[in-house]
Amino acid sequence: MDFFQGNTDKIFVIAEAGSNWKCGTYEEDLKQALKLIQIASDCGANAVKFQTFRSETTYVHNAGKSDYLDKKGISVEINELFENNAMPYEMIPELYNYAKKKNILFMSTPFSVRDAKEINPYVSIHKVASYEINHVRLLEYLLQTNKPVIVSTGASTYDDIDFAVNILKNSKSSVSLLQCTSCYPCPIEALNLSTIPKIKSRYNLPVGLSDHSIDPIVAPLTAIGLGATIIEKHFTIDKTLSGLDHMFALSPDELKLMISTIRKAELAKGHGEKIILPEELELKQFATRSLQALTNIQKGDLLVEGINFDVLRPGNRVRGLDARFLQNVNGKKSKENVLKGDGIIHFE
User: Fold this and answer.
1) What is the rounded CA–CA span in Å between residue 130 and residue 293?
2) Which sign, positive or negative, has the C-alpha torsion 136, 67, 191, 84?
3) HSE-up of 332 (CA within 13 Å, CB side)?
4) Which among 46, 70, 179, 266 counts the fewest CB atoms within 10 Å?
């Protein structure tokens, strides 16, 4: 929760379980969902996220088959697919309690107002899926919760994002946006990560990435370099399991690698102030050029560049004035004796 309390130095990592909890009976599903929470916690994610939907409040009756899914070998009516993968509402508090026990934030993306009402008691942050960005009633309800809202922007234009932001901006809490390409898996060349700083500048809101590519490092690290402060990524127990989201999700080892790399990137970002760091100080003194004596210099001697002093690295000798003061010193008199190799400090 640090990120949503103003600590934007930290990257907020959402481990997206999606529908990867679905595997059989209620008991089997619950066991798998709990295992996913355990993995997300062990890997160091800030939050673990599921999805809450019902077919009847998402698609029209007899919506048919998706050509997109059909090409991926999922040849089933979309209504049936949603019915089969709908998380029972009674499972939500069980997952919430287990996540709390594992010290990881529980999240679930609602696809309707009813879904949002069911999960609201159990979430601290709401998430809007890309295809719900224009769901006016859902956005209005989420506004009323006064909780932080993260909006994915896959398959969206600025007009679409403007619509959602204009509704949510009146909340007493924060709004964040995620660059997203709604393709599963997403080719690297379709990630369009350069939109991140543009979205950030346009809306003056925190921006992140909902990443559907299969590589655990390239997109998250590039996104962070472009200013992303939230990373969302699908993960699974086993990529070979049957189901919607397993094939493009990260394995537990890949999720762990991604998060550890993000934490290193977090450290590498630093504080953003251009100063001499403690780690640099010794070599700064040793190796940055300064005004050093070429010969023994007596008090009152004329200081002449290239004759009795020059611009050199001092090593561990007495360091002279910084080289940028060369013109101030050249042609002046030394106010003290200086040994060969030591620095020129006082002149008149």
Assistant:
1) 68
2) positive
3) 15
4) 70
- Cβ atoms of 247 and 257 within 8 Å: the answer is no
For residue 248 the two structure tokens come to 């493009």
In the 8-state DSSP scheme, what is residue 292? E
The alpha-carbon radius of gyration of the chain (Å, integer) is: 29
Residue 322, beta-bridge partner list: 290
Residue type, 303: L
Residue 173 vs residues 8, 176, 261: alpha-carbon distances, Å: 15, 10, 30
> What's the pLDDT at 1?
42
**Mutual angle of helices 26-43 and 91-101, in 10-degree steps:** 30
Here the tokens at position 70 are 């059909």
Q: Is 170 helix (H, G, I), strand (E, B) or coil?
A: coil
- The residues, ordered by sequence, that sit 6+ positions from 97 with a Cβ below 8 Å of its Cβ are none
Domains of the chain: 2-269 (3.20.20.70), 278-329 (no CATH)
Give the distance, in angstroms, between the CA of residue 103 and the centroid of all CA atoms in the same chain.
Answer: 20
Q: Phi/psi of residue 72, each to 5°?
A: -95, 10
pLDDT along the chain (348 residues), means of 10: 56 96 96 98 98 96 83 81 95 98 98 98 98 98 97 98 96 94 95 98 98 97 97 94 84 98 94 94 98 98 98 98 98 98 98
Alpha-carbon dihedral angle through residues 236, 241, 245, 247, given to the nearest 10 degrees: 90
d(CA 10, CA 272): 13
Determine the residue type at 51: Q
| Token duo for residue 12 | 């907020």
* Mean per-residue pLDDT over the chain, rounded: 94
Please name the residue that has the structure tokens 């929760």.
1
